[in-house]
Amino acid sequence: MLFKCVILESGTSAKKQNANPTFEVPPSGRILDKTQNAKRRFSFDSNTMIVKTDSIPPAISADSNEKSWAVVGGGMLGLTLALRMAKQGHKVTLIEAAPSLGGLAAVWNLGDVTWDKHYHVTLLSDDRLRHMIDELGLSEKMKWVETKTGFYTGGKFYSMSDTREFLAFPPLNLIEKLRLGGTIFLASKIKNWKRLEKLSVEKWLRRWSGNSVFEKIWEPLLKCKLGEAYRKTAASFIWAHTSRMYKARRTGLKKEMFGYVEGGYRTIIESIEAQLRELGVEIMTSSPTQKIEKQTDGRFQVDFKGHDSRHFDRVIMTTPNAILSRVCPDLSADEKAKFDSVEYLGIICASLLLKKPLSVYYVTNLTDDWVPMTAVIEMTTIVDTEEFDGNSLVYLPKYIPAEHSMFERTDADIKEDFLAALERMYEGFTRDDVLAFEMSRVRNVMAIPTIGYSESLPSQKSSVDGLYVVNSSYILKGNLNVNETITIAEDAMKRVLKEDLASTARN
Ligand SMILES: Cc1cc2nc3c(=O)[nH]c(=O)nc-3n(C[C@H](O)[C@H](O)[C@H](O)COP(=O)(O)OP(=O)(O)OC[C@H]3O[C@@H](n4cnc5c(N)ncnc54)[C@H](O)[C@@H]3O)c2cc1C
User: Fold this and answer.
1) Is the shortest distance between the CB of 397 and ligand 1 below 6 Å?
2) Ligand 1 center from residue 310 Cα (angstroms)
3) Which of 117, 187, 285, 372 could in theory staple to 417 by disulfide, Cβ–Cβ 3.0 to 4.6 A?
4) CATH no. for 121-147+258-263+344-447
5) 213 CB under 6 A from ligand 1?
6) Which stretch of DSSP H or E encloses residue 227?
7) Ranges of each domain in the chain
8) 67 Cα–ligand 1 center, Å
9) Cα(103)–Cα(469) distance, rounded to whole angstroms?
């Protein structure tokens, strides 16, 4: 098919008729602009062709002496790094232990439905992620929905979705509400987060909200998010959390708006994967990296379980810290000790496909001690039920330290506890409503920001020349989310990797 169109700025549209130059449109999503020797992504409906202006570097020549980079870990961080580096023209191999890409943002099957293994939403203030979505040509698939937040406390549900409901929240008296609101406002105004890293979150919240608010609201919420680890967590944790939510509301009419891309993270990951392949990135899945050692020729030998070893000039580790000491024996004793000292929070997260919804809340925070999970997340309060064949998708997360004994319990045991809790909490819920139930277990989800955390992290440029560690444990100014993950990857390219990238770029 032959179209004529005008190239405008990235993401702008041009009428198919009366335009110039001419492009031949292949069945896939790329066109070759012969005038500039660049490929451009496009999409179109009946009237409009949307043309993206990113260009593709020249193909890798077999005899080039360019340096090879291995990016270990195919989660959003590794995917971002591989994409950014390949766009700059580097020769990249992306290595992932699992059979498919995505890491914590990967998808799985729940009955006949394919959706994110862990619940994911985008905030209006997630600028890096939104830029990536735009760059992938997926902005038109982005949906924004106003959401409601619930609280389950003392055996009752309360809506806490706006200021009016906040002020009507019965478990707190007026003074307590003012102190709670004041603390959130104060946290949102703090610029020097490093100061907060020196104080425990408990001490800081008790100081500003008072003991009663701490015990009624903050402590149960912190326990939900961090388990007993909240006792050693720095106040910067609550600052990061509240300022992200506050910023999101500021950008959107003071309402809580959450977004998702049609098809969930599958759409995003498949789109990045397609781009990586087009850019010539080699993708190795089902390749758990077992050892990375520097050889006498200065290159790295990477050993895999079940594959032959490979050699690379540079290696970037994006995996959690837990495996670094074992996989990278050349790291110094000091680096190993520092990586090993970072404590991780893990998760057990059940996904349920239900015949009917449980409630109107996206998140229901659970503060009663007896409830075995952290929260109830009802995805279908945001995502169109058509994505789930008209059914309701609910997640039941339980955040626990990586070493917690709950990881030893069987899925059947945990399922029994979770379903019994739902029966007790929701009048209309019965086990017959459950069409599918799957359980995810991840020990190393998020590095716990302990007191003085940022001071104890080793440099991302390790003591082994050419070996870098760029993972989510370097998120200092925010809690774990994809926006921060992308930020870590992009900032590392501009700072720690910059010099090395410049010297290894293709000529
Ligand atoms: C329950 C839950 C809810 C979340 N909700 C949201 C949300 O609503 N919004 C949001 O923005 N973010 C959310 N997040 C956070 C988001 O998922 C993360 O920020 C992001 O996915 C982290 O990406 P990563 O690449 O740093 O880590 P990971 O996704 O953990 O990637 C690391 C990768 O390394 C691989 N790996 C490990 N060991 C090896 C090895 N030896 N060899 C090769 N590969 C290896 C792993 O398999 C994995 O794929 C949520 C996370 C969870 C768990």
Assistant:
1) yes
2) 25
3) 372
4) 3.90.660.20
5) no
6) none
7) 2-51, 68-98+264-340+452-504, 121-147+258-263+344-447, 162-255
8) 27
9) 17
Mean pLDDT of the chain: 85
* Nearest C-alpha neighbor of 88 from the set 103, 66, 62: 66
Strand order of the sheet with strand 257-261? Answer: 122-123, 257-261, 142-146
Which CA distances in Å does 281 have to 265, 274, 276, 277, 460?
A: 20, 10, 5, 5, 23
Q: Determine the Cα angle at 130 with ends 73 and 136, to 5°.
A: 70
The residue count of the chain comes to: 507
Read off the pLDDT of each residue in 147-166 and give the average, rounded to a whole number. Answer: 85
Would you call 34 helix, strand, or coil by DSSP? Answer: coil
User: Residue 133 — pLDDT band, cuts 50, 70, 90?
Assistant: very high
| β-pairing verdict for 91-95 and 68-72 | parallel
Asked if 68-98+264-340+452-504 and 121-147+258-263+344-447 have one fold, the answer is: no
Residues 6+ positions from 76 with CB-CB distance below 8 Å:
102, 103, 104, 105, 482, 485, 486
The sign of the torsion formed by the CA atoms of 259, 265, 271, 275 equals: positive
Q: Angle at CA 386, nearest 5°, toward 383 and 389? A: 120
In a 13 Å sphere around the CA of 490, the CA atoms on its Cβ side amount to: 11
Buried b (16+ CB within 10 A) or exposed e, 380-408: bbbbeeebbeebbbbbbbbbbbbebebee
Cβ atoms of 259 and 145 within 8 Å: the answer is yes
Ligand 1 atom at shortest distance from the alpha carbon of 488: 26
Which mutation among 104, 256, 378 tests ligand 1's pocket best, with the greatest number of atoms within 8 A of CB?
Answer: 104
For 243, list phi and psi in degrees, rounded to 5: -70, -30
Distance, CA of 105 to chain centre: 6
Q: How confident is the model at residue 506 (pLDDT cuts 50, 70, 90)?
A: low
- Say yes or no to pLDDT of 167 above 80: no
Q: How confident is the model over 445-499, as pLDDT tens digits?
A: 999 999 999 888 999 999 999 999 999 999 987 789 999 999 999 999 999 999 8
Distance, in Å, from the CA atom of 320 to the CA atom of 345, rounded to the nearest integer, reads: 11
pLDDT digits (tens, 9 = 90+) for 300-347: 999 998 889 999 999 999 999 999 999 999 999 999 999 999 999 999
Calculate ∠ Cα 7-12-15, nearest 5°: 65
Phi, psi of 54 (to 5 degrees): -80, 140
Q: How is residue 456 written in tokens? A: 């104890």
pLDDT at 44 over 50: no
Q: Which residue has the least CA distance to atom 33 on ligand 1?
A: 73
Residue nearest to atom 49 of ligand 1 (CA): 103
Q: Domain 68-98+264-340+452-504 sits in which CATH superfamily?
A: FAD/NAD(P)-binding domain (3.50.50.60)
* d(CA 317, ligand 1 centre) in Å: 13
Q: With contact defined as beta carbons under 8 Å apart, do 67 and 300 qualify?
A: no
| Token digits of residue 129 | 């992620």
Question: Measured in Å, how far apart are the chain's first and last C-alpha atoms?
Answer: 35
